[in-house]
Amino acid sequence: MLTFLALASVLLLGIVPERSQAIVIYTGWERHGLVGSDIRLSCSFFSWRWTSEDVTFSWTYRPDGSRDSISIFHYTGGVPYVDNKGPFRDRLEFVGNPGRRDGSILIKNLDFSDNGTFTCDAKNPPDIVGRPSSVRVLVFETVPIQAGVITGAIIGVVLGLLVLIVVIYYLMRFLVARRVFSLSVSKHGKKKKEGPQQRQLWTPPPLTCYPLP
Amino acid sequence: MLLLLLGIIFLHVAALVLLFVSTIVSVWVSGDAGSSDLWRNCTTDSLGPDCNPASTGEWIQAVQAVMILSIIFSCLSLVLFFCQLFTLQKGGRFFLTGTFQILASLFVMSGTIIYTVMSPEWVNGNYSFGYSYILAWVAFPLALVSGLIYVILRKRE
């Protein structure tokens, strides 16, 4: 029985990763940068295998509007090779940590001509089947609005208005109740004032002496 | 009487469920290259579906906000309905519940209209509107009718 279980578990461990052996690469979807600033493009991957010594990272760049992509970075055999002829010479730096599955690069001094799509491809032998992941870089003069800010703002404003209306409604009710309370006090005071007046109005009839017959 | 109550609650819950499905599952546009919706774009190729977050445009964020608001208002109106059911005087009307539900339906309407008008800008190629879009359009009259019923209804014994 125990040997059967051991055999079954070994078979399962052998079979199950076969299906899920694709390497999954993560970069961002879009990165925004200001002209003249530095931008860090991160690339990491998920793989069922241990990080091998022959892990490779490669970045390619395709400018906006162009159909050709050029290779700008390659890490293999433990050595990073940066672009020394293309549009990123002297501007590209490897800031990743391949041992921690991080193949990020740093591009210094952004320019408008750097608008385009950067594709990261990582391989972790023997786990090599995977889809490269792309990140779009947009260079701005001023920073645009981030995703979700407008959504949150609209929801916040509407809910805030709702809370404000509720608070104002209860405040009005409270104030009106107070005014009603003061109205009843003044009525009581008026009644008091009218009381003695009524007494004064009602004068006792004058005593007349009736002479004795 | 109980039948009427159950029918109204069922209508309200149906509109709420449609709103949830339409916002979360969100297959608003589907074409030959993949599907695109409120929250992300998915394309399918040989290695399986590949999804990326949707673009950071202002109008798609407005549609997201409006759909979430409509869900919130519809949930609030359901809670208010149960509150008012036990606290309202005899002969009173469920004004507050109806107001919230009508507001929710107006939000859904504006969201779907914005999406219809702006969608050629977001998706290119030949595409057709997916089932979440249709569910949103169905949820709008359901919520509107439900809200109107609340406004007209009077509380009895």
Automatic annotation (TrEMBL), chain A:
InterPro entries cross-referenced by the UniProt entry: Ig-like_dom, Ig-like_dom_sf, Ig-like_fold, Ig_sub, Ig_V-set, Myelin_P0-rel
Any single biological process term in GO: myelination
According to the record, the segments passing through the membrane are 145-171
Membrane topology term reads: Single-pass type I membrane protein
Signal sequence region: 1-22
Alphabetic keyword roster: Disulfide bond, Glycoprotein, Immunoglobulin domain, Membrane, Signal, Transmembrane, Transmembrane helix
- Locations listed in the record: Membrane
- GO CC term (a single one): plasma membrane
Q: Domain of life of the organism in this record?
A: Eukaryota
Q: What is this protein called?
A: Myelin protein P0 isoform X1
- The species is Betta splendens
Gene expressing this chain: mpz
TrEMBL record, chain B:
Which key words tag this protein in UniProt? Cell membrane, Glycoprotein, Membrane, Transmembrane, Transmembrane helix, Ubl conjugation
Presence of keyword Thylakoid: no
Localization per record: Cell membrane; Membrane
Subcellular location, principal:
membrane
Q: Which InterPro entries match?
A: PMP-22/EMP/MP20-like, PMP22/EMP/MP20/Claudin, PMP22_EMP_MP20
Q: Tell me a GO cellular component.
A: plasma membrane
Which Pfam families does the record associate with it? PMP22_Claudin (PF00822)
Function recorded in the entry: Might be involved in growth regulation, and in myelinization in the peripheral nervous system.
**Know the name of this protein?**
Peripheral myelin protein 22
